[in-house]
Write a structure and sequence with these properties.
The protein is of the alpha/beta class and 337 residues long. It has helices at 11-23, 107-119, 144-157, 168-175, 191-199, 214-226, 254-261, 270-274, 277-289, 316-332, and strands at 2-5, 27-32, 37-42, 59-63, 83-85, 88-90, 96-100, 124-126, 160-164, 180-183, 204-207, 232-236, 266-268, 294-298. Bound molecules: phosphoenolpyruvate and manganese (II) ion.
């Protein structure tokens, strides 16, 4: 349930409602919009049967939410959530770009890539230090050494860092080095990890699970938000279908769907979404047309030699071409890039 306050509600009206609900054992989440404040109430609403909240000063109305996710839904926060990270913003008018190799492989590989991406106007450097590989015999990542290399690249270039955590332990470690934590598709329903990510304040890129419905994905975001971290960037990275030509099926319809259902920013990952480097640019263009708040793209100095996800990684030349496409389409749609 959410309580919609009147536009002219005073601060003490809001704290009055908050205190009363907390004294009754509810979890209370406050969303301050530009027009009015909305109070999200989590708990057994039958307890409110004899409490006419509508009569409290400053309260406009109560809205019962039928969706299982409450805080991630538009009713709780009607305006788009814009997440500020360093000098970058996700969820506003700009098409954000997160790019970099699937995995951090060496200092040289990552620093070369970082310098190139910086020269292209990219805001975020991505690179996995803990890799959730499908086979235990595949390269698993450089772990903390990889995080240290990422931090070096940030110190030199000023790029913001995005890297994946695969467990509660690696989350704690990654949080010491990066600006944004990625929770990967395979961990979208790792509820202990989601809760832990909710207890820290770093923004989270939450990838859609391999066969997750949009509702399951938003419920995963709800786990994080319910612990107090509202800085979530949803990432459409393709779902598993009967099609095998592409690695996954990039569900572009999820972008406008999520924007309708939720206030959270949503970005697209055409690299994992297709598994083929030559499909990355067309699907990036389509994702921008569909309203994505940003793109997450794998780039490698020499994709053929990549230790993971080479076939879907762009080399520097094709990435530079993609950046031209992004600028053109974003400009045509009145977006910044
Ligand atoms: C990745 O970003 O490299 C990754 C492993 O992604 P996903 O979780 O979407 O498979
Ligand atoms: Mn990858």
């Amino acid at each position: 349930m959410v309580i919609v306050m009147k536009p002219q509600a005073r601060k003490e009206d809001i704290t009055g409602v908050e205190k009363l609900l907390k004294s009754m054992g509810f979890d209370v989440h406050i969303s301050e919009g530009s027009e009015r404040t909305i109070i999200g109430v989590i708990g057994d609403k039958r307890l409110l049967a004899d409490t006419p909240l509508e009569l409290l000063p400053g309260v406009d109305r109560m809205v019962h939410i039928v969706e299982p996710y409450k805080l991630a839904g538009r009713a709780f926060h009607p305006e788009n959530t814009v997440i500020k990270i360093g000098n970058e913003e996700i969820g506003g008018n700009k098409v954000a770009v997160m790019a970099g190799p699937c995995a951090v492989e060496s200092g040289e590989q990552l620093l070369n890539t970082a310098r190139f991406l910086k020269s292209q106007g990219v805001g975020f450097l991505r690179g996995g230090a803990f890799k959730p590989r499908s086979s235990p015999y595949s390269f698993q990542g450089l772990e903390e050494d990889g995080l240290k290399i990422l931090a070096e690249a940030r110190d030199e270039t000023g790029l913001l860092l995005v890297s994946e955590a695969v467990s509660e332990r690696t989350l704690e470690l990654a949080a010491k080095y990066v600006d944004v934590i990625q929770i990967g598709a395979r961990n979208m329903q790792n509820f202990a990890l989601l809760r832990e990510a909710g207890r820290m304040k770093l923004p989270v890129v939450l990838k859609r699970g391999l066969s997750a419905t949009i509702e399951e994905w938003l419920n995963a975001a709800e786990y994080i938000m319910n612990e107090g971290n509202y800085n979530i960037i949803l990432c459409e990275r393709g779902i598993r279908t009967f099609e095998t030509y592409t690695r996954n099926t990039l569900d572009l319809s999820s972008i406008p769907s999520v924007k309708e259902l939720s206030h959270l920013p949503v970005i697209a990952d055409p690299s994992h979404g297709t598994g083929r480097w030559n499909l990355v640019a067309p699907m990036s263009r389509a994702a921008i047309a569909a309203g994505t708040d940003g793109l997450l793209v794998e780039v490698h100095p020499s994709p053929k030699e990549a230790l993971s996800d080479g076939p879907q990684s762009l080399n520097f030349t094709s990435f530079a071409r993609l950046m031209d496409d992004i600028r053109n389409i974003a400009g045509f749609l009145g977006r910044e890039s």
